[in-house]
User: What shape does this take?
Amino acid sequence: MDFARQQRDPTRHLIGIGVVILVHAIVIYALVTGLARRAVEVIKKPLTATIIEEIKLPPPPPPPPPKKIEIPKALPPPEQPYIPPPDIPPPVTNTEPVIAAPTITPPPEPHVIAPPPPPAPPPPKPAIRRGNQLVVIDKVDPVFPERARRDGVESGKVTARLQVDEKGLVTDVRIVSANPPRVFDREVIRALSQWRFKAEGEKYEAEVEVNFVLE
Assistant: This one.
């Protein structure tokens, strides 16, 4: 179907006419029922407009004025009274020559180093007591060594020196001579270390002779 035939179609004209009649009927109904009047009254009502002002912050307080620092004024120096200069007589020139006496400095004394003091003399050795000079309170007799018996030794002689303290106790035993040597030494030292002499309140040395005989 072409466009011209569509335009001449009576159905389309009937639909347009029906729409126009419907619009007019609605307008007439609105006028009769007062709907249009109400709409006009609503439009005529005054409109209330509220203007909101912008809130302004208070201005900041002004800065405090700068403090003035007062500089103390320097006091003027006190006035000093005028003192006239003293009268100085003119110098008198001495025409005679002046001979200064020479200063004689004595020579320094030589530094003398004192000699060191002589060494103290060694303490005197205690007297050596022998025989009847010894007072023995308690003593232990030496025993003939079994080893010397097995070796065929039948006799011997040992001389020992003892260190005795203030209380009469033996503090040291030293072999002076032995025949035969180193056979009876240990037994002599063992026995004499247990001896006790009379206390004399001072130290001394005692010399003891010990004889061994195989029985």
